[in-house]
Amino acid sequence: MVEQNGGEFVREMMKWHFSPETGSPFWLKRAKTLDFDPLTDVRDFDDLGLFPNVVDELRDVGVRELIPLGYGDEHDARVYESGGTTGQPKRVMFTAEWERRSIEWFSERLDAHDVPRNIDWLSAVPSGPHNVGAMAAQTAAARGGLNFGIDLDPRWVKKLLAEGRRDMAGAYTDHLIEQIGYILSSQDVGVLFATPPMLEHLAQHDDLVELVNRKIRTIIWGGTHLDADTRDLLRDEVFPSTKLVGGYGSTMMLGTSVERPGLRDDEPCVFDSFAPYTTFRVIDPETGQVVPYGERGQVVVNHMSRAALLVNNIERDCATRIAPAAGSIGDSVADVAPAASFGGAAVIEGVY
What is the DSSP letter of 299? Predict the structure, then answer.
């Protein structure tokens, strides 16, 4: 339970990120350009709207500038990058403290969905500089399992599609499916963590569908949207022997949100955030005002932890605004789908 509108937590985060002893060089320098004082003017969740959206600056800023001074030399930082959907990738820094807390929360949410522990994972998600691959491996290990990953580079597929080279993109996707097949056929894996496009391609291979239904007990999907009709088809007809659990996350969110447990099959897939550290607002992009519950708008993400401050970040996604879980703050979201374009660039999903 957090204070109404997150006041105490927000003020604590402002003190950490804007005090000379603890703040990051990036924010201490950026504070001089703001037309308000975060230490005195930002008192609760609503006041986060005062901040500019700085995520585009993360394409070029030196990542060491993002490490809060309060960690000293004890940050054990790891650098992760965005998928580069709308241009040059952006970079964020995860401290070991935040990465551990994020994995613990994700694992607790999987427990709420009765995802079994002590079984091995097959992760068909981006690796390399993308946090989701590291999150999969660390979560599997934290839950007593091994993780089998495939070599998935979403930027290459997006580049091919942007250039109209669909035949090569298709060949690359076949290459990924082949890697999945090697693991499914030879290893005793019980959790499949995959993006929706990968699940849709997998569904076209009867031999692999049979292996999934025989071996996999839970499919965790995430990274992009999955419309309700396709979700129903995958759950009820293609993979009826497994449970589907959804996740909605991004690098700029510094983590993920997880499908609310206990939803009926005829209910939309609602995502609850890791509040108060990560919170959502759903706004009318024309007015910037929060839309009523049940209506659609653009997703705005706030991340506040000791590791990072990224607030008032307008995501490329649209969603339906849902009341948050009891005792939480911000919004929950449902029916998440990417906008056709964002920041003047076409949004290309590819395999992610």
Answer: E
